[in-house]
Amino acid sequence: MSVITDDDRLDKINALIVKLASGNLDARETPSDDFDEVDAIIAGINMLGEELESSTVSRNYLKSIYDGIVDMVIIVKENGLIQGVNGAVTKLLDYSENDLVGKNLSDVFKSDSAEPLGFLEHLRDDSSLHNIEGMVMGKSGKETPVSTSCSILIDSKGEPAGLLLVAKDMTVQKQIEAELKKSKEAAELSNRMKSSFLANMSHEIRTPLNGILGFTEYLIGMSISDEQKEYLQLIESSGQTLMKLLSDILDLNKIEEGKLGFDHVPIHFKETMTSSLQPYKYMANEKGVAFGLEFENFDEISHVYCDPTRVNQIMVNLVGNALKFTSKGKVSVKLSISPIGDGKRAMIRGCVSDTGIGIPDDVKNDIFKAFVQSDSSITRRFGGSGLGLSIVKELIHLMGGEISIGSPSHIGTAENPGSEFNFNFSVDIAEAPVNETLEKFEKLEFTTQYKLLVVEDNEMNRILAGRVLSKFGATVEYAVHGKEAVQMLKVNDYDAILMDVQMPVMDGLQATRVIRRLGYDLPIIGLSANVFKEDIDRSRQAGMDDHIGKPFTKLSIFRALKNVLE
């Protein structure tokens, strides 16, 4: 039986230490049963081996997680040198880890904000930074867009020891953003082209329409037979219908672009609506249809701030539709007002009902969409573009209100069930003027014989304006473009100028600016087929005193001239 000496045991201890030091972490020695001081050393070395083995397993596990992260992970020392990277970095940049370790971060991270010292400086007040965009450059020189987040690494003493950077490859996202931007720009270009086309078409249509409606109005005022007057009124009505369709198309385009503007002016609501709907009362009487118009509480709240043009547009569309689709029975309009909130605002509620052909249930959800009619046969029987209700809904929504279709079974019949539209919108309450007087003119005639200059490139509109102004008692001269008007003004005195906006050689806005620079302060009134708020604003910014939309009426020109001359 051999005896194990202390020297043998010490040799085993040395051998165990060598095995562990060489990486054989599974090596172990068994202590003796006596468990003396030497055995305690062996047990301690065994425990160290177990700890080393456990630590190595943990490091390998963490290393596998570290390399498995799809985003790039870079560890940077406080001096800016790369200490370690994960597999995503070596894959994207085509460097080995050994190639990158020891390099300065700025050698691969091409962004001013990625300077290590700069990162550290910003991070001292915050523990992390997020989504800093930059570029990393690979071995081949290829640049890749990245979004980087970083945080400070703290050593055992609690001091900053470096940075941990996580960089996400943004190549695909940047491509998507570029495509979206391209699509957005294409859509915006298409919208601009559409708007430009509609504006030009509006001008081209309104210009001859101005002559048609203007001369029709001029002829109606002459001594003619009742039959001739009836024909002229039909022409005028057809022209106004065409004007309404044109305005609807332009308004719909403005709504789609989010550029439809609203005025905020005080009006006597009841009187304004009564005046606007008066023609429909006559139209109803001619069809043999009763027409009812009721107001509730407008004696208590008479004046409100709103856009009268838009409110009229809503009412005219709803009432016009009701009358168009009603051949017998009644069209009813009810409007009420009541204060809301602190009493400075009010809610206007309206109901337009009729005993007409009604709206089928299967199309009620679509009736407010553009170009939708309640039935395909409606267009053939009654005409119309299907734009009116779409614009009404959009206008009411833009005014903060709602519109819905009711069930007017109480007013219709089985053959003609009728329709009912209920709507509301809020307005600001206005103070009633102390001495309100409606503008009235006994005769459209000036008290002074004014000398006026009409600047208009369209011959028919020049003739029309001349005839109308001559009827007012004015003397009229003409220019066919802005440049000619400027030259005529230098050698003649005029009391006012009626200036077309869109003309060849020199347009009305350019001519007005030149006239103002030359020191002339006589009134200039713009005439334009472009009638949106921004068009009016451009005219005033150029130096015009007023802006009249085409087609113009005798009253609109008389009122504008009277305001600036008298």
Automatic annotation (TrEMBL):
<dbReference type="Pfam" id="PF00072">
    <property type="entry name" value="Response_reg"/>
</dbReference>
<dbReference type="InterPro" id="IPR036097">
    <property type="entry name" value="HisK_dim/P_sf"/>
</dbReference>
<feature type="domain" description="Response regulatory">
    <location>
        <begin position="451"/>
        <end position="565"/>
    </location>
</feature>
<feature type="domain" description="PAC">
    <location>
        <begin position="130"/>
        <end position="182"/>
    </location>
</feature>
<keyword id="KW-0902">Two-component regulatory system</keyword>
<feature type="domain" description="PAS">
    <location>
        <begin position="58"/>
        <end position="115"/>
    </location>
</feature>
<dbReference type="Pfam" id="PF02518">
    <property type="entry name" value="HATPase_c"/>
</dbReference>
<feature type="modified residue" description="4-aspartylphosphate">
    <location>
        <position position="500"/>
    </location>
</feature>
<dbReference type="InterPro" id="IPR036890">
    <property type="entry name" value="HATPase_C_sf"/>
</dbReference>
<protein>
    <recommendedName>
        <fullName>histidine kinase</fullName>
        <ecNumber>2.7.13.3</ecNumber>
    </recommendedName>
</protein>
<dbReference type="InterPro" id="IPR005467">
    <property type="entry name" value="His_kinase_dom"/>
</dbReference>
<dbReference type="InterPro" id="IPR004358">
    <property type="entry name" value="Sig_transdc_His_kin-like_C"/>
</dbReference>
<dbReference type="InterPro" id="IPR000014">
    <property type="entry name" value="PAS"/>
</dbReference>
<dbReference type="InterPro" id="IPR001789">
    <property type="entry name" value="Sig_transdc_resp-reg_receiver"/>
</dbReference>
<dbReference type="InterPro" id="IPR035965">
    <property type="entry name" value="PAS-like_dom_sf"/>
</dbReference>
<dbReference type="Pfam" id="PF00512">
    <property type="entry name" value="HisKA"/>
</dbReference>
<keyword id="KW-0597">Phosphoprotein</keyword>
<dbReference type="InterPro" id="IPR003661">
    <property type="entry name" value="HisK_dim/P_dom"/>
</dbReference>
<dbReference type="InterPro" id="IPR011006">
    <property type="entry name" value="CheY-like_superfamily"/>
</dbReference>
<dbReference type="InterPro" id="IPR000700">
    <property type="entry name" value="PAS-assoc_C"/>
</dbReference>
<dbReference type="InterPro" id="IPR013767">
    <property type="entry name" value="PAS_fold"/>
</dbReference>
<dbReference type="Pfam" id="PF00989">
    <property type="entry name" value="PAS"/>
</dbReference>
<dbReference type="InterPro" id="IPR003594">
    <property type="entry name" value="HATPase_dom"/>
</dbReference>
<feature type="domain" description="Histidine kinase">
    <location>
        <begin position="200"/>
        <end position="429"/>
    </location>
</feature>
